[in-house]
Each structure stands twice: as C-alpha cells, then as structure tokens.
Amino acid sequence: MKTKMTKSWILGMALLLMAAGPAIAGQTVNESVDVGRGASISIENIVGSVRVVGSSGSTVEISGTLGDDVEELLVEKHGNRLEISVELPEGDHNRDLDAEADLVIHVPFDSELEVETISAMIEVSDVRGEMNLESISGSIDVDGELSAIELSTISGEITVASGSSLQEGSFESISGSIECDADLSDNGEFAFETVSGNITVSVSRGFSAEWDVETFSGEIDNDLGPGAERTSKYAPGRELSFTTGGGGAEVSVESLSGRVSIREN
Fold first, then answer.
1. Cα-flanking dihedrals φ and ψ of residue 22, to 5°?
2. Model pTM?
3. Percentage above 70 pLDDT, the chain
C-alpha cells in the first residue's frame, strides 16, 4: 500500500485552504494522456472535488473546472507514473482566493491510485488497482470492483460498497463515520478505526473471519454472534472477539466513543 501524505504537504495546503473563500470556477480543463495499462496515478487537490472513474483503454482523460486563482493544473508523466496536481500561487494568503477545483478523471481499470486532498471530496468507481485515498475534511466514497484499499480522513465520512472480493482494507477516521458494505475476502486483513465516528461493517452470509472489536465508551451491536462484554467493572470499555465460518480473514474494529455495528447482508 502507498505511504501516508507528508506532514509538510498537509500543513502547506491547509494554510492555503484557510486563506481561501467561496469559489466560482472560471477555467475549463480538458486533457488526455496515454499512460498504458497498470499505471500509477497520483492526484492532489485542495478544495472542491475529485471524481475518478475506471474505464477501458490506456488513456487518462481529465476534465472539469478550476477557480480563477488556480495557477495551473500540473500534469506530469514519469515513466508509468502520472502526477496530477492543482497548483496555487505561492505565498498568496488572500481570503478571497478562488481556489476550488472540480475534477473528473477517467483512468484505466487496473490503475494504482493515490489521491490526497484537504477539503475536496473524493469519489472513486470501477478502479481495480490498489488505492490510497486521503482527505482532511472531505468525504471519501468508493464503489465497484476493488482489490486493496487504504482510506483515511479526519472529519470526512468514508463509504465503501463493493460486490467483488476485497482482498485488503484499512479504514481510518477521527470524527467521520465509516460504512463498509463489501464482499470481504476470507483470506484478507481489514482494520476499521475511529475516535468518535460510528463504524458500520456489513458482510455477506458465510463470511469466514476472526473478529476483534473494541470500544472505550461506544456501544457494540453485533448481528453475527455474541454480544460485547465489559473490559472492566470500573470502566465503560467493551470488547468482543468471535469467529464466523471457519475463521480465515482477520477483522479489527476499534472506536474510542463511536458506535460499532456489525451486520450481515
């Protein structure tokens, strides 16, 4: 899986975001780049939206609109890697900065995808390569045939829906909720973690896994088997360990104060 976004990028982009006001898009984007199959694609945006759609062929097609104060949409190809980033003027802290960018990007189905945003929402559909999607306050919504995903936000919501066999998944949020309704692989590893956000995991009937569920002050609602137990008579913590099927996958679910719900489709 890809590494987390750098702290310097987060801090730099957050400063620009704090300076930005409401945006009215004024520039049109329409570009295409031939990248070949199995390309690695990186996308960076600050505020607005990023929608990525898997498609046949070997071309990346980029469309959308940019705010008037966006300096440029930088598109750079390095071998089998394509980098797409929304560039703002350096050192411009004008509170009326029109920095919003709304992008729609079609990529080959099997692309590896990395997206980093501040408050831009992220939507991905029908991309089958590994994904690392990160936002600070933007929501993350993923659907389609998936293989391995790593999703993280601070206050945004995470929603995942997949009918294919998801092999590996890491889901992290601070205050945003996490909802996963996917066909999890019996041989996969999956980790769900929030601080105050609620977590809902829905799995198919017959899913085989070892479950480890824990909260400090949140409730645990389990449709698959036993109820949670108190970790101590002096503390509100609850924990639950159980097996479905013959065991196989490893599922860890942890929240400090959010509610955990485990459902069967």
1. -55, 145
2. 0.86
3. 85
